[in-house]
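Researcher: Please translate sequence to structure tokens.
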Amino acid sequence: MQQMNSRPKVVVHIAQTADGRISIQRNAQEGQWERVLQSVSKDATPFWAKILREEINPDALLTGSETLLVGQSRRFSLPEHLSSYHTGDSASLLEDFIPEKSKNETMGWNIVVDSLGRIMWTERETHFWGEKWDPLVLVSKSTPLAYLDQLQKKSIPYVIAGHEKVDLGQAMKKLNTKLQITKIAALGGGKMNGALLRAGLVDELSLIVVPLVVAGEDTPSSFEAVELQGEGELPWLLRLQTSKVLDDGTVWLKYVVLEKLGDQDLRN
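Model: Translation complete:
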């Protein structure tokens, strides 16, 4: 686990089934997962929101672009209206873009990782959680310049971290030093959670477990990442801090992420 003195605390907060699924199928329609949750546990979604606001109380929310693209085509092509970007001066685009107005007036940040430039940033995406929770995009140096140009024209802040893809560790340090963000709630999906876990950036897990089993070989799960490599890479050890059971069988589990298991743990 990386030290938090130079980065925000990261809490993965997610509603899942008993078998760790966060949807009923890959490429589910928008709102389908929420309707299933509501049919099984009417308290799951409001309880998830209550925990997020009152127990976690983050400075920022973090999602991957996949989350905002639910119900839309995942096949990427640079939007036509961005293809007309022509300039010989890209230096200003390849620097962090954080307008002073955004820093001074926001109550919190809605952060999305989008190095491919897939999100169009219409009103739907910018109004995520309250009037003063402003969008911020994590991009890389390989993000299309046309996309960065559009973000600047729309006054949407972005932070550059990494070359071919977003370097989450570097991004976290920048969010802390440039915006004084001290706590982030990672709201999924599974690929984002998996990337955070593999980078050693997850400090707590907050799981709303509903009494439902989905299964399926390709059904999205809470953590999706590359496989552990050989015998030298082992799982993370957790410590349960809080548990609460609702009347309908939904359970809230709060874990602290401690450290990776070592060879001595396997021998004991």
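Researcher: Any highlights?
Model: The mean pLDDT is 84.
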